[in-house]
Amino acid sequence: MKQINYTLLLIFGLIIFFFTDCRTQKKIEEGYTGTTTTGLPITSKDYLQKGNVEMDKKNYKEALENLNKAIELDEENGEAYAYRGMTKYHLKDLDGAMEDYNQALKLIPDYGEVYDLRGIVKGEKGDSLGACEDWNKAFDLGFNKASELIEKYCNEEN
User: Fold this and answer.
1) Does the structure show a pLDDT above 70 at 11?
2) Looking at the DSSP assignment, which residues form a beta bridge with residue 60?
3) Residue 41, SS3?
């Protein structure tokens, strides 16, 4: 029988443990969308992703809870504010949606889709001029879907 070198096995095991632990930490830092062993999201991006999934299912209250957590973990997460604004819009909280869209645009000033969404809220609140300004800004930033709203609501003859 061959004799086993336990020192080499121990060193080999430590190298494997260290290597896999470093890779896991790197994934977390890069916004890895995995979960902890308990199944709970681990980063702001994870809560954002879970909030998006709940929005897709039209579970707006659950989406709001997850997006609130995403923002608690990272107050500079403009995407989380944008999606929370959409969630609040679906929950008929137009003022809350407007606040979140404004914050998203402070963090990501060239976010064309958010200008489009904020324009919809402005339009529903009776601010036609503000809505058209936002839709035009969205279009200028490359969000081409805004052209439909511009054509429908912002042309002189309408």
Assistant:
1) no
2) none
3) strand
